[in-house]
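Sequence in, structure out. Go.
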Amino acid sequence: MHPTTELYGRGVYRFLMSRQWVILTLIALLLIPTMIRLGIWQMHRYEERTARNQLVTDALAAEPVPVEQLTAPGHTVTSAERYRTVTAKGRFDTEDEVVVRRRTNSDDEVGYHVLTPFVLDDGKVLLVNRGWIPSDGPSQTTFPKVPAPPSGEVTVKGRLMPSETTAASGIKNLKGLPDRQIMLINSEQQARRLDARVLGGYIAQTAPEPNGDTPELLGDPGKEDAALNYAYAVQWWLFSAAVPVGWVILARREARDRAQAAAAATAQDRESQPATA
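Output:
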């Protein structure tokens, strides 16, 4: 029998019971289910983002409807209603117009969103986000110059959005702000400020377009990168499969190296023994 084969037969894998290999094996056993769970979590994220992207696609593809078909005073805009295109007929109330602080445009420039109450024919109020304007300068204590909206009775079109909250947006609703400046677009808060019947949520205006460069209309809502989560899920599962494969390769290599070292030591011992007559 070949020396190496003989040593394998004598339990060369006993090294697996050493402290180092026991720790390595335990780590491997912990990594496998952890990576599987991470892959499952990423797959759930993929499914959630895919569903949200489909909602956005369906909402943008839907035909415009009058705003009061989808919302009313006190109504909470649902995920199925979000981004739906709505229309409204009335007039802009610039006297009660406010600006929303710390908002960025498509180039990540910080400025304001212009929030103008839009009084409907039946007296209810729709909050209209007319778009983004730049800051006048380093000072944010004065009301910025805001381009005027169309005067008189007009028809506006926009994407219906839910009211903003700190919990959903992460934006703190700071107190003590300069006059006519706010942090969140919230229909309940604006209803108290205006002492009016304000429709739930607000719209991001898409038409009519402004006469000048500002306010800069908000772009289409971006879709979440669901494919990235799918790739991460597959990656984690491949990692989990690679752990036992790597463990086996390392163990076999260790066993081979030990067997070869033992065989070499045996051969050296035989060579060093004196020859007998």
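Check: The longest helix spans residues 226-272. The longest strand covers residues 110-120.
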